[in-house]
Write a structure and sequence with these properties.
Layout lengths: L2 H17 L4 H5 L11 E7 L4 E7 L8 E2 L2 E2 L2 E5 L15 H9 L3 E5 L16 H24 L1 H4 L6 E6 L1 H14 L16 E5 L2 E4 L13 E6 L9 E4 L2 E5 H11 L3 E6 L14 H13 L6 E5 L12 H5 L3
Parallel strand pairs: 5-6, 5-7, 7-8, 8-10, 10-13, 13-14
Antiparallel strand pairs: 1-2, 2-6, 3-4, 9-12, 11-12
C-alpha cells in the first residue's frame, strides 16, 4: 500500500471513530418546562434482545392541523447518540416536540437498537460493525413505519404523509433509509412496494456507501439538511477510500443539485456537531420546508450559509481522548 493510500485509510479510520460519538451536550441540557407527555405508547417490534416502543404526540388542542386544505404530516423522530446511547423520551427533546405539536404536527418518537453499544474502539477495521449498526437502525425505522401503516386508521395517520427526521445517529439513519428506499434494497421489503416518505429532515447526518458516490434509482423525498461546516463527528463533507465512503450533507447537496432533486441545506459556518441539537432553535427553517417543499409540493431550493456567533461551540476532542490508545 503506498503512502497516499495509507493516509486515506488513516483519514477514514479517524472519521469512522468520530462517527460514533454521541451528542453528549444534548443529554446534559435541561428540558425546560414544556410539560408535554405522549398521548399513546405502543410496542412496534419485538427483537431477540429487546422490545421497541414508540411515543405518539398528537397535535395540541386548538392547533391548526391543516394548511391551505392540506393535512400537516406526521413526523417520525430518531434520537442521537452515536448508535451507542440515547432515548426517545430524553427531556432535551420535549420543547421541540411541543413546538411541532403546537403547530399542528403529530410527532412519533421511536426506539431503535443501538448497534455499537459497548464499543470503545472504532476504526477502519470496524467498518462492518458501523454498517451493521446503521442498518439495524434503518430496519427498526422501517418496522415503525410499517406499524403506522398497518394501524393508520386507528391512529388517524395518513401513510402517504409521513416525514422522517433525526439528530446525529438518527439523522444518519433517516438519510440512509430514504437512500435505501429510493434504491429499493433488500431491507425495504417490509414496506409496500409503492411506499415513499413525504420528506426527510436531517440534523447533522450523512450516508455510508460501499458503492462510491450515492446514486438514487428513484427520486429521493424532499430533504432538509442542517449541518455545521466544521463537524468532525458526523463529517460535513466526505471521507472516501475507494468505493467505501461516508458522505455528509455538503456532498449530498452536491448530488441533489446535480440531479435536480428537491432539497434545502442550511450550512452553519464554523460550527461543529452542536448543530445536531438545534432542532428547537431552527423551527422556522423546518416549518418553511414542511409547508413549501412537502405540503406545497414545490421544488423550492434553499442553499444557505448561516454565521451565528450566538451558537455555543462544542469544541473538538481527539480520537485518543475519546477512545484511548494512539
Amino acid at each position: 500500500m503506498n503512502q497516499t493510500m495509507k493516509d486515506m485509510g488513516k483519514r477514514l479510520s479517524a472519521a469512522l471513530a468520530a462517527f460514533v460519538i454521541s451528542f453528549a451536550a444534548a443529554a446534559e441540557s435541561p428540558a425546560g418546562e414544556s410539560g408535554i407527555r405522549p398521548d399513546g405508547t405502543y410496542m412496534f417490534a419485538q427483537r431477540d434482545t429487546c422490545e421497541l416502543f414508540m411515543d405518539v404526540y398528537e397535535p395540541a388542542a386548538g392547533s391548526e392541523t391543516t394548511l391551505n386544505g392540506k393535512e400537516k404530516p406526521t413526523i417520525i423522530f430518531m434520537f442521537g447518540g452515536g448508535f451507542i446511547s440515547g432515548q426517545r423520551d430524553l427531556p432535551f427533546y420535549f420543547p421541540w416536540y411541543g413546538k411541532l405539536t403546537g403547530n399542528g404536527y403529530r410527532v412519533v418518537a421511536i426506539d431503535y437498537r443501538l448497534g455499537l453499544k459497548g464499543q470503545t474502539r472504532v476504526g477502519i477495521a470496524q467498518v462492518n460493525a458501523i454498517d451493521k449498526a446503521i442498518h439495524l437502525a434503518v430496519e427498526d425505522l422501517f418496522s415503525a413505519t410499517r406499524f403506522l401503516i398497518d394501524n393508520a386508521d386507528a391512529l388517524g395517520i395518513n401513510p402517504d404523509n409521513i416525514v422522517i427526521s433525526g439528530s446525529s445517529a438518527g439523522a444518519i439513519t433517516v438519510l440512509q433509509a430514504d437512500y435505501e428506499l429510493s434504491n429499493r434494497t433488500g431491507c425495504t421489503s417490509v414496506l409496500p412496494e409503492d411506499f415513499r416518505y413525504a420528506g426527510v429532515m436531517s440534523f447533522s447526518g450523512g450516508i455510508l456507501s460501499r458503492e462510491g458516490l450515492p446514486d438514487y434509482a428513484r427520486t429521493p423525498a424532499p430533504t432538509l439538511m442542517l449541518h455545521g461546516t466544521e463537524d468532525r463527528i458526523v463529517n460535513y463533507t466526505k471521507i472516501q477510500f475507494f468505493n467505501l465512503g461516508f458522505f455528509g450533507s455538503d456532498k449530498l447537496a452536491d448530488r441533489f443539485a446535480k440531479f435536480g432533486y428537491n432539497y434545502n441545506i442550511i450550512r452553519y459556518e464554523g460550527c461543529g456537531h452542536e448543530i445536531a441539537g438545534l432542532m428547537n432553535d431552527t423551527c422556522a427553517y423546518q416549518f418553511a420546508f414542511l409547508e413549501t417543499n412537502v405540503m406545497g409540493g414545490k421544488r423550492y431550493i434553499v442553499d444557505m450559509t448561516v454565521e451565528d456567533p450566538s451558537i455555543e461551540r462544542s469544541g473538538t476532542v481527539s480520537r485518543k481522548e475519546l477512545f484511548g490508545g494512539e
